[in-house]
Amino acid sequence: MKIVAILVLFLSIILGIIFGGSFLYSRPFKVYNSVFEKGVDNDFVSVFKPEKNFLAPVELDISNFKITEKSKFFWDEFHFRDFLITVPTHNPNFLVVPYISTIESNGVPLMGMNYIDQKLRKNFLFRTAPIVKFDVNKFNDKLFTLPLFKEKLLKTPIKDIWIDLFSKKIAQIKQNDNLLDGELYNLIYNLYILKLRKEIFTENIESFSFYSDKQIGIIKRKSEKQNLSNYTLMFLNNSFITSLDIEFRNTSKNGVNAFKRFVKLIKYKESNEEESARIYAKYKSLSYQIKVDQEGLAYLFSAWSHIPNERGFIREMIFFLERGRGNSYHLGPLYKYAFRKFGTSFSADEMKLRETAKEKLKRLIKEEDESEIGAIGKENEGSEVDINDSDYKLQKVKDKKINDDTKDNVLEF
Question: Which of 67, 70, 201, 286 has the fewest CB atoms within 10 Å, i.e. is most exposed?
Answer without folding.
Answer: 70
